[in-house]
Structures are given as C-alpha cells and as structure tokens.
Design goal:
Blueprint lengths: L4 H20 L3 H25 L7 H17 L5 H23 L4 H21 L1 H4 L5 E2 L6 E3 L2 E3 L4 H24 L1 H11 L1 H6 L4 H27 L1 E2 L6 H14 L6 H17 L5 H15 L3 H14 L1
Antiparallel strand pairs: 1-4, 2-3
Helix pairs in contact: 2-7, 2-10, 2-11, 2-12, 3-4, 3-10, 4-10, 7-8, 7-10, 8-10, 11-12, 11-14, 12-13
Length: 317
C-alpha cells in the first residue's frame, strides 16, 4: 500500500485541480494541465516501445495524427455523435499501427527508427496532398457534440472543467492499462525481449509477434492522445503528423525516465511548464529546454525518475 500512496496522492491533486488552480493562480493553467496530461499519454506510447520493448520509434506522430483525424472527420464529415467519433480516433490509429507494424517490427535498432520516420513522412505528405479531405496544414475545424444529452440534461467538453476531468479519466485508464500489462506474464516477456531478444527466442518466445502486439498497443495509446488533443482544440492538422512531434515525445520520455510508469508524464510536465513560463518573457525558450535536456542526458541518463530512485536509495542506505 505504501508504494501506491504517491500515485494516489498525485491522482487526488489532479482530480481536485479544477478547484485548486483558480484559487492559487489563473484559470488558464487548467488548460495547460489538460495539455500536459494529453501529451503525457503520447510520451507514454513512446516509452512503452522504447522503455519496455527496446524499440525507439520516431513515427508515433503518425498514429497521433490518425487519432486526431479519426475524431475530426467522424464529427465533421460523417456527422457522428461524440462517442462513436471519439472511438473512431484510436481505432483508426490502431489499424494503421497494425499495418505499419507488420513491416516495421521486422527491423531493430536504428533501422527500426528509420522506417518509422519513413512511414510518418509518407502519410504526412499524403495528408498535405489530400487537402480536400484533411485540410493540410490549415487543418479541419469542427463543433463539439455533446458528451452526454439525456432528458434535457447536457454535458459538453466546451466546459473547461468537464473537458479536464474527461481527459484525466481517459489518460489515467491508459496508464492503468500500461501498469496492468507490464505486471502480467506478457509484460515480462516484453522485458525479456528488450534485454536479449536472441535468448528470448531460444526459450520459446515469439519475438516478432510480441513486438508487433506492443507496437499496436503503442499506436493505440498515441491514437488516444491524438483524439483527446483534437477534442481539446476542436481541430486536426497534418502538421501534427510530422516526425518532429515524435522527436519531442522521445525527449520527454527520456528526460522523465524510460522504462518507468510516471517518467513520461514527469518529463512532459516539466518541458511544457518551461515552455509556458519562459515563453512569456523570452522568445528563445527552446534554448533553455534544450540545455535542460542535455544536462539530464549527460548527468542523469536514467532520467528524472531514475535519478530520484537513486537519491532515495542512497538516503535509505
């Protein structure tokens, strides 16, 4: 139980944030916190592959984009209500992850990273070309349907608090899914593949099939984050399918601590907070972000969570 207390405490603070934030600061920060939570799920999808399977993907932006467009096109083009449109986003991303993963997971190391970038670029330029469907860089705007409408009682994500709590609930479920998966025999098999895929295959583990399934799960997580981000901004754009979005997620995961549950969330939170605070005073805030990332990689290659665990272990010793 003691190991769960920090997680429960953090969850309690996050749940109460809509009422705490306006008291201690501007209500604008609740929107920033919502964005952090969404991008944490995206970083977690990268961490799931890199931290637990040993596959570094720079193509997660592809599935993020499919999650965005699944929601946007579902509402604007297919006239779907909220829930079918919302599920269409992660479903589209999962199908795309399965298709690309069939080819990508046959490779490892830098070859895998390169092919994920290639897939991301192919569909990015395709999205730019099909501007009549995707809107290209201009994107697609849509009106938010009601989350819930029964007997005249309506609940909509146009309300900032409702949007925040909905986003938090979905992302907490995603992190809980990751925790459950990694605590299972399946998760231990993924760790075995990460540590030594040759030895894992010798003891009967189907390396290709497990890597493919992990790739699909990571694509699903990225699709969920894309769907949430589309609902957050009522907008979808091809620019979010470019590989630099994946690169940011990789940095967030590494700085926070790959192979840890909360590392991606911590890394994402730190970088977005630096961006929001510094950008109001200095337009070159990316320099501070870059310098901070370099320092963490050099002096704490295990990430912030790994550094904290090391410090706590030394204090106990």
């Amino acid at each position: 139980m003691s190991a769960r207390l920090p997680y429960l405490g953090l969850l309690l603070v996050l749940v109460l944030a809509p009422w705490i934030v306006p008291i201690i600061g501007d209500a604008f920060w609740l929107s920033v916190l919502t964005e952090i939570i969404i991008w944490s799920c995206f970083a977690a999808s990268i961490n799931f592959l890199f931290g637990y399977v040993g596959l570094l993907s720079f193509g997660q932006a592809l599935f993020f984009g499919f999650g965005m467009y699944g929601v946007a096109l579902g509402i604007s083009a297919f006239q779907l209500s909220f829930w079918p449109a919302f599920f269409l986003g992660p479903f589209s991303a999962t199908v795309m992850a399965l298709i690309t993963g069939i080819f990508a997971v046959r490779l490892t190391w830098h070859y895998f990273a390169i092919i994920t970038v290639v897939f991301s670029l192919i569909f990015y330029f395709l999205a730019l070309t099909l501007k009549s469907v995707t809107g290209g860089d201009d994107g697609i705007n849509f009106s938010m349907p009601d989350l819930f409408n029964l007997l005249g009682y309506k609940l909509s994500l146009t309300n900032t608090t409702t949007q925040y709590l909905f986003t938090l609930s979905v992302v907490v479920l995603c992190f809980w899914l990751i925790k459950i998966v990694m605590a299972s025999a399946y998760g231990r098999s993924l760790i075995a593949i990460r540590d030594n895929d040759v030895r894992a295959s010798l003891i009967g583990i189907n390396v290709y099939r497990l890597r493919l399934s992990a790739f699909v799960i990571a694509g699903f997580l990225a699709g969920v984050s894309g769907a949430l981000f589309a609902l957050f901004g009522r907008y979808a754009s091809a620019s979010y399918m470019f590989y630099h979005v994946s690169g940011e997620g990789v940095v967030w995961a590494i700085v926070g601590g790959v192979g840890t549950l909360m590392g991606p969330a911590i890394g994402t939170g730190i970088f977005i907070l630096i961006r929001e605070v510094v950008s109001t005073h200095w337009q070159h805030h990316a320099l501070i972000v870059g310098a901070f990332a370099i320092c963490i990689v050099i002096f704490a290659p295990e990430g912030i969570v790994g550094l904290w665990k090391k410090i706590r272990h030394r204090l106990r010793s």
